[in-house]
Structures are given as structure tokens and as C-alpha cells.
Design a protein that fits this description.
The complex is a heterodimer of chains A (about 110) and B (about 110). With about 110 residues, chain A is mainly beta. In chain A, strands 2, 4, 5, 6, 9, 10 and 11 form a 7-stranded mixed sheet that branches. Chain B is mainly beta. Chain B is built from no helices and 11 strands. In chain B, the strands form 2 sheets. In chain B, strands 2, 4, 5, 9, 10 and 11 form a 6-stranded mixed sheet that branches. A 5-stranded antiparallel sheet of chain B has the order 1-3-8-7-6, with no helix packed on it. The interface between A and B is medium-sized, with 24 and 21 residues.
Chain lengths: ~110, ~110
Amino acid sequence: DTEVTQTPKHLVMGMTNKKSLKCEQHMGHRAMYWYKQKAKKPPELMFVYSYEKLSINESVPSRFSPECPNSSLLNLHLHALQPEDSALYLCASSRSMFDEQFFGPGTRLTVL
Amino acid sequence: KNEVEQSPQNLTAQEGEFITINCSYSVGISALHWLQQHPGGGIVSLFMLSSGKKKHGRLIATINIQEKHSSLHITASHPRDSAVYICAVRKGAQKLVFGQGTRLTINP
């Protein structure tokens, strides 16, 4: 299995909702990443987990809460989001933080 | 000035043409990545380079560490190559720094 999967593909939520994005890989990678991408812009790093520990948090607002329950799974919990948080959320994984990253297809999030 | 600059920002060509996309960076790096993103979102990693040249099918990537420059070439371009091509550099174990992307359109 050489892919990163993300669910759901699309998500529409209100500003008071709580939802979660899920990312999974079975390549034995020990680094996992969340990126946010606005239209026609490059991805922006949000979080990095290395060996299931949060390694980098790029000063992301607390309404985004990452979780890495095990080495294959990465979640992003969303609460009280703003319309400007609407974007494509990409997950990636790599063997280590020094290695090539493999990206998932993304979740397109719309906040109403 | 961005740490990673790509040129051109947009490129339109006819099917069969030889394509070159350039990436210049201003920081010391441990690796450079070329990524491809089709409309609709998913990103595919094309190459990771730290020196020299790599080839995969019709794609060739080169890097000159002394000049802090990399190029991505596509031979015999095809409409399915139409996508955004992104250069990203990594400094040590730190995060990737992305260029703004080059939007490539190949017309039949």
C-alpha cells in the first residue's frame, strides 16, 4: 500500500460545528503532516508529527487540534471555525522528517 | 523576496514541445522537491534531489547546488501534463518551503 488516504473528500460545516478530518497511511512512515492550501497558493504547513509526537506547530489557532493516535493515523479536529478557514486540507507522510513526502488527495473544507 | 522563486508563473505550450520550469532558492538546503498538482487538489511527488540529475519517464530534474538553481524538464509534452508544478526546498529536518508554483497548460 503506497498511498495516503484522507476522509472525507468534501466537508461543509457551520461555524458552531465540531468535525474531524482523518488521514491514514500504511507505508510504515513515522512522520505525518497537515497542510492548509488556499486557492492558487502553495500549501502552508500546519503541524508535523514525528514518531506520534507533535514536532512542529506553525502557530496554528487552537480551533484546529491535531491528534496522532497511532503511527498510521492522523486526525485534525475542527471546532468553531471561521469562513476564512475554508481551504483544501492536505495530509502527507514520510519515512522520517528528512525524507520525501507523500501527499493525500486532500479534504476540501467549506465553512459557512 | 521569497526564499524560493519559480519561473515562469504561467506557461502555455503546444503538445510535443519541450518544457522547462526553473526554481531558484536563496537558502542552504538539504533537499529540493518537485511536486505536481492537478486541478482538484492531490499533490504528487515527482522528484527529491540533493545533487545532480534524476529522470523518470519524460520528466527530468536537475539541480546545481553552487548556483542554488533547479530545473524541471518535460520532453514530448502532452495535455495530461497540464498541472501546477511546485518547487519546494527543505532545510535540514525542518519544514518544506514552497515556491508559488508554475501553472502549465499544454494544448493539443
